[in-house]
């Protein structure tokens, strides 16, 4: 199925556009990457992960660099089309523009996706645009009349399918029913925050930690509650490591400082009761001063119990209001905040849910990770947490 639409010979005429969609962790991106690496010369295709770029010029210039091996300045779609025409006219081989997490392209401009899909007709060259996304075409296209590409659908796995897949990691000498309970628990904790590939990576080490109290004869195999309680600190460390892997590429691609404040704002919204917002985020609170003695006492006494205090999901309006209170260097346009929030959802740093047709967001980062981010940007997060937990 995939070879029929993607694995053309370099000189063959390909479809103008291909739309690949399906839930996360189904191998969409990896299959495309491997096929192109095997079948096509390096400079015949460009693969961009849209969640690590924040300027429209970056989308154009990085794509051109992949196709030419050279740095090119490109400010708009017209310049991009002209340069692509020059590149494609050097020979008859098809060039491919591949965009992963393509739903984020809409955040750059409402006309960018239609323009990209029309590039082959505009340039009159052997060019193919491939969009990879979790969003089905009916929701992706935003409005009718947009050029419809050839569609490839990766069917998603149900929870039972995933559990069965993960059960294949069961050690040969372990009882499958006992292991299934462990896998089901790991799935419930991790799947909102990571992919199936990540689950395969973390399960072996976590299982060693899970079975360790039994091997040391400290806990019975039937005492699941105690086993899971002992496992939870190790799970938190693994989650922090996964989130670090998700956020590191963003920071390396010059993630703006204000976006780190957005992460902190979402964390505060996730763990601080909403009825304290007026007290904590008003101008009067900004003027409050804490003595060193009181602050040291509060910090030492602070016991941040995530299971007790959260995380809770909040409306984006509340998160933005907190952001405007704690970040005062400049005014950030609302559209940029929305764009960055979508990126954090795609990177699993935020989890998005819906209740009564209202979208809610939850920060997935741990307190320790948020503390490190706060320290890096000289933000005193205890100023807010101290008050909320000592009122």
Fold and architecture overview:
Helices cover 54% and strands 11% of the residues. The chain has 19 helices and eight strands. The chain has helices spanning 2-6, 28-39, 56-68, 77-88, 112-123, 137-140, 159-167, 176-190, 196-215, 224-252, 257-271, 277-281, 283-287, 292-301, 306-309, 316-326, 334-346, 367-376, 382-390; strands spanning 17-22, 45-49, 95-100, 127-133, 150-154, 314-315, 350-355, 358-363. Strands 2-3-4-1-5 form a five-stranded parallel β-sheet, sandwiched between helices. A three-stranded antiparallel β-sheet has the order 6-8-7. A hairpin with a 2-residue loop joins strand 7 and strand 8 (358-363). The longest helix has 29 residues, at 224-252. 29% of the residues are buried.
Give the helices and strands as they follow along the chain.
HEHEHHEHEHEHHHHHHHHHEHHEEHH
Unreliable stretches, pLDDT < 50, 5 or more residues? 1-5, 289-308, 387-391
**What is the overall pLDDT average?**
82
C-alpha Rg (nearest Å)? 24 Å
Distance between the termini: 61 Å
Largest sheet: 5 strands, parallel
Helix/strand-derived category reads alpha/beta
- The neighbouring-strand order within the major sheet is 2-3-4-1-5
DSSP strand (E) fraction? 5-15%
Shape: globular
State the total count of DSSP E strands. 8
Helical content band: 40-55%
The number of helical segments is 19
């Amino acid at each position: 199925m995939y070879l029929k639409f993607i694995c053309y010979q370099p000189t063959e005429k390909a479809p103008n556009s291909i739309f690949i969609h399906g839930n996360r962790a189904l191998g969409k991106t990896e299959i495309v990457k491997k096929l192109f690496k095997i079948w096509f010369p390096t400079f015949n295709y460009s693969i961009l992960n849209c969640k690590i770029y924040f300027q429209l010029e970056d989308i154009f210039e990085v794509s051109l660099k992949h196709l030419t091996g050279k740095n090119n300045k490109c400010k708009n779609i017209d310049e991009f089309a002209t340069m692509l025409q020059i590149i494609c006219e050097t020979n008859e081989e098809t060039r491919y523009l591949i965009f992963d997490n393509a739903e984020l392209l809409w955040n750059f401009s409402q006309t960018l996706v239609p323009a990209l899909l029309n590039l082959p007709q505009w340039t009159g060259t052997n060019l193919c645009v491939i969009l990879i996304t979790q969003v089905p075409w009916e929701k992706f296209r935003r409005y009718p009349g947009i050029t419809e590409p050839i569609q490839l659908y990766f069917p998603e796995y149900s929870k039972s399918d995933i559990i069965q897949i993960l059960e294949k990691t069961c050690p040969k000498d372990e009882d499958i029913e006992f292991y299934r309970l462990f896998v089901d628990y790991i799935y419930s904790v991790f799947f909102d925050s990571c992919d199936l590939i990540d689950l395969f990576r973390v399960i072996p080490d976590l299982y060693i930690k899970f079975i360790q109290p039994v091997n040391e004869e400290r806990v019975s195999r039937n005492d699941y509650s105690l086993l899971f309680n002992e496992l939870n600190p190790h799970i938190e460390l693994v989650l922090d490591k996964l989130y670090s892997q998700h956020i590191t590429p963003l920071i390396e691609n010059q993630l703006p400082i204000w976006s780190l404040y957005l992460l902190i704002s979402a964390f505060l919204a996730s763990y601080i009761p909403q009825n304290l917002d007026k007290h904590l985020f008003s101008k009067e609170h900004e003027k409050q001063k804490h003595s060193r003695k009181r602050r040291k006492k509060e910090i030492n006494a602070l016991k941040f119990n995530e299971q007790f205090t959260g995380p809770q999901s909040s409306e984006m309006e509340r998160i933005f209001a907190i952001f405007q209170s704690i970040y005062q260097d400049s005014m950030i346009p609302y559209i940029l905040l929305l764009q960055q929030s979508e990126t954090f959802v795609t990177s699993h740093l935020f989890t998005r849910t819906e209740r009564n047709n209202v979208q809610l967001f939850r920060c997935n980062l741990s307190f320790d990770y948020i503390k490190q981010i706060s320290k890096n940007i000289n933000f005193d997060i205890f100023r807010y947490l101290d008050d909320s937990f000592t009122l």
